[in-house]
């Protein structure tokens, strides 16, 4: 109106009104702390919901927003609502989000404005997008505009619902011109469509930062497990420290991870490498100070990375003040914080065995009682039946929440409800009651994430652990798939070859049975497991290919992936003489098995294959001395292959495993199918290929992985002809003959 009034020579009044409207609109609707516009002004939670309506405020020729505000709105819409075919009506991070339109009438009605994707807002989105093209990296423009034109070759029709045909045509010409300026082009590879120059574009892709105040943010996230003792030493002590982690935050930001799971950093005698905590609210001095920890939390937040603290709520160190008081007298108030039984020195209360070998009971002559320990004698189990003990542990967790952590990894959490008199050490009858107590007393902030280590979990238990109502945990680590290559009825040291159909059936069951009613954790590696490329891949002639293949298979599944440090480099197992291993479990096992008559050679073969120290060797940063980990003597020897396998080499190589992981991480945030797609297993009995699909209403993902060093044949589904190849671990993906350890992902979108 002001512009029209100017043509009539009456601009004064209308210009004042226009400026007033502009100022008022920005004051009332724009949220500078969040970077987007309120949807309505109602005084309810609906005000701040992220919806596509706001894009029109940017797309209009006469915007009421500043260029910076416009940029922020477009960025928010891109991260939360954009798909190449349509815009979502509501952010997937919103608790009211319904990502699928189908089912009964009520379900369809709930989804209609609560997540279903609409075509007509795309015209406004691309107008807004192209207004500030210079503010966006090349990769984003390439993918967005390119996908738009592939989906809508006549383009004007697609946009006509929201703007005149001439405007749509203009936008189309601008988009094509922008693509030409950036040198983007497309080509077909067999039945798959793929972009040229993707490696460079991947490196330039802007990282999407998830809002960690929102419930369920972890469903789009990728976590990085970090073993502080082996990550980076800054003092020359030979042991990693918190300042070493600080020095590599940029590396983790470049990779694109959303949160760091820190293995225990609390004060500890280090009998079990920190899993014997002597003070839950203090930092282990060899790692640094609480000031270092505060800085790490703050600097990580600046990079959009959350910190998860690893807590052992099942046991503590025998040096903890609670246990020192507990064993001083039966009448001490702390005595009942632990599990005690009467008995004589030569007769334990039961024949229960510790996980690390030997009896699960240790005698204290001063009070004439035995205490229970599921692990080492230096790790007494705590008595969760005592409400005072539970409150103490709630207070510990609240301490760390106040420090600003994003959540917790809870060690062997399914063992806290044990009943040793009944030989129950896992999945005790009060377990879910105790987990609900943690949730109700500590996890009051909906953005906090909890992952529980649950060796005894099956799908039915996992549904309760990770129920969408958040009454217990966010997710659990289940280990059923990890035990498929050990002899039935024996332990991890007794190995058998992995049968791929068994692995496929196991993961199929977890994917399908938790769909819509629970949440999976996705992992192959951690601080307790050998390196997966040495275990199920080929760590010699196909190390790079098999590492990428294993990542492809895992990252296509529904759940939250966890990278263990060095996995993104393809780090391998190590072979050391017995005396150089540090792990208590290894030495106890060697002693027990040789004493029973096993040959030392066979025992060492098991250690080289399954020992926990395989995962704990120092991070390989460079090809230099000690892999750049320390200037001193490393606490555990560095793998000799660090001269070839290291972060510096990976960052310099656009085809490295590192950049492959970065691509997978970015794709999981870009495409809703990774979060919401329904899983279907293909060729379940095939002994070489792991193939499956993930499907939503608008996106269809096909993943094919060859788990062998031999070529395999694959009957390519006709419905995926013309699909885009998202990622492949060979330069040119094959379709009919799948090469050794070859893997690829295809996406087909419905417009």
Q: Compute the CA-based radius of gyration.
A: 28 Å
**Quaternary structure type:** single chain
Structural class: alpha/beta
β-sheet strand percentage: 5-15%
**Count of strand segments:** 26
Mean pLDDT: 87
Main-sheet strand order equals 17-16-15-11-8-7-19-18
Report the total helices. Answer: 27
- Residues in helices, as a percent range: 25-40%
What general form does the structure show?
globular
Major sheet: size, sense and barrel closure? 8 strands, parallel
The span between the termini is 37 Å
Parts with pLDDT < 50 across at least 5 consecutive residues: 133-204
Question: Which properties best describe this structure?
Answer:
751 residues; alpha/beta; Oligo-1,6-glucosidase, domain 2; Immunoglobulin-like; eight-stranded parallel β-sheet; seven-stranded mixed β-sheet; 27 helices; 26 strands; 14% strand; globular
Protein model, in words:
It is built from 27 helices and 26 strands. The protein has 751 residues and is α/β, with parallel strands linked by helices. An 8-stranded parallel sheet has the order 17-16-15-11-8-7-19-18. It has a 7-stranded mixed sheet with strand order 5-6-24-26-22-21-20. It has a 3-stranded antiparallel sheet with strand order 12-14-13, with no helix packed on it. Strand 13 (361-364) and strand 14 (369-372) form a beta hairpin. The two termini are 37 Å apart.
């Amino acid at each position: 109106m002001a512009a029209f009034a100017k043509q009539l020579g009456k601009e004064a009044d209308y210009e004042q009104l226009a400026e007033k409207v502009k100022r008022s609109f920005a004051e009332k609707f724009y949220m500078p702390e969040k970077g987007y516009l309120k949807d309505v002004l109602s005084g309810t939670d609906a005000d701040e919901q992220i919806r596509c309506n706001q894009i029109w405020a940017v797309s209009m020729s006469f915007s009421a927003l500043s260029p910076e505000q416009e940029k922020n709105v477009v960025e928010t819409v891109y991260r939360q609502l954009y798909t190449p075919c349509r815009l979502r009506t509501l952010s997937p991070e919103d608790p009211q989000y319904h990502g699928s339109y189908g089912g009964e009438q009520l379900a369809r009605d709930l989804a209609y404005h609560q997540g279903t994707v609409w075509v007509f807002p795309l015209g406004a989105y691309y107008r807004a997008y192209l207004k500030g093209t210079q503010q966006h990296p090349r990769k984003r423009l390439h993918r967005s505009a390119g996908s738009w034109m592939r989906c809508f070759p006549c383009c004007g029709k697609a946009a006509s619902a929201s703007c005149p045909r001439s405007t749509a045509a203009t936008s189309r010409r601008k988009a094509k011109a922008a693509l030409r300026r950036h040198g983007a082009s497309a080509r077909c590879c067999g039945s798959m469509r793929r972009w040229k120059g993707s490696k460079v574009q991947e490196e330039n892709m802007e990282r999407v930062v998830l809002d960690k105040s929102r419930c369920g943010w972890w469903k789009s996230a990728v976590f990085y497990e970090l073993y502080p003792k082996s990550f980076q030493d800054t003092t020359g002590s030979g042991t990693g420290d918190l300042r070493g982690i600080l020095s590599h935050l940029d590396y983790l930001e470049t990779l694109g991870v959303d949160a760091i799971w820190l293995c225990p950093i609390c004060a500890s005698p280090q009998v079990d490498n920190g899993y014997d905590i002597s003070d839950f609210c203090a930092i282990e001095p060899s790692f640094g100070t609480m000031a270092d920890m505060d800085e790490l939390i703050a600097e990580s937040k600046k990079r959009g990375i959350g910190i998860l603290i690893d807590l052992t709520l099942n046991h503590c160190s025998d040096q903890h003040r609670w246990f020192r008081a507990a064993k001083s007298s039966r009448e001490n108030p702390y005595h009942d914080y632990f599990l005690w039984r009467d008995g004589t020195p030569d007769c334990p209360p039961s024949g229960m065995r510790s996980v690390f070998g030997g009896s699960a009971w240790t005698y204290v002559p001063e009070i004439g009682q035995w205490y229970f320990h599921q692990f080492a004698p230096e790790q007494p189990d705590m008595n969760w039946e005592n409400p005072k003990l539970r409150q103490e542990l709630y207070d510990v967790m609240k301490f760390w929440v106040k420090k600003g952590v994003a959540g917790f990894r809870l060690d062997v959490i399914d063992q806290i409800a044990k009943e040793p008199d009944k030989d129950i050490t896992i999945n005790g009858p009060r377990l879910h009651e105790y987990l609900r107590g943690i949730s109700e007393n500590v996890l009051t902030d909906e953005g906090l994430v909890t992952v529980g280590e649950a060796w005894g979990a099956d799908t039915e238990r996992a549904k309760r652990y990770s129920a969408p109502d958040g009454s217990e945990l966010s997710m659990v680590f289940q280990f059923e798939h990890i035990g498929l290559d050990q002899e039935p009825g024996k332990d991890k040291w007794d190995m058998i070859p992995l049968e791929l159909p068994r692995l496929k059936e196991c993961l199929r069951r977890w994917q399908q049975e938790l769909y819509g009613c629970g949440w999976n954790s996705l992992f192959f590696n951690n601080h307790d497991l050998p390196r997966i490329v040495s275990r199920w891949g080929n760590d010699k002639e196909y190390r790079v290919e098999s590492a990428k293949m294993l990542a492809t298979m895992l990252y296509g599944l529904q759940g939250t992936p966890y990278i263990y440090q060095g996995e993104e480099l393809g780090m391998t197992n190590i072979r050391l003489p017995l005396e150089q291993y540090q792990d208590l479990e290894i030495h106890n096992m060697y002693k027990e098995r040789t004493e029973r008559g096993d040959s030392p050679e066979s025992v060492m073969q098991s250690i080289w294959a399954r020992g926990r120290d395989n995962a704990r060797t120092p991070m390989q940063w460079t090809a230099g001395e000690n892999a750049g980990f320390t200037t001193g003597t490393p606490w555990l020897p560095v793998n000799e292959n660090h001269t070839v396998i290291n972060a510096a080499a990976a960052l310099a190589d656009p085809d490295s495993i590192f950049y492959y992981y970065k691509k997978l991480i970015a794709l999981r945030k870009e495409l809703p199918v990774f979060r919401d797609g329904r899983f279907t297993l293909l060729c379940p009995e095939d002994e070489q290929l792991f193939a499956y699909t993930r499907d939503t209403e608008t996106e269809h993902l096909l993943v094919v992985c060859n788990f062998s060093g031999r070529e395999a044949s694959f009957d390519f589904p006709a419905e995926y002809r013309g699909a885009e190849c998202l990622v492949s671990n060979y330069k040119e993906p094959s379709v009919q003959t799948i090469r050794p350890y070859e893997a690829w992902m295809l996406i087909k979108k419905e417009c």
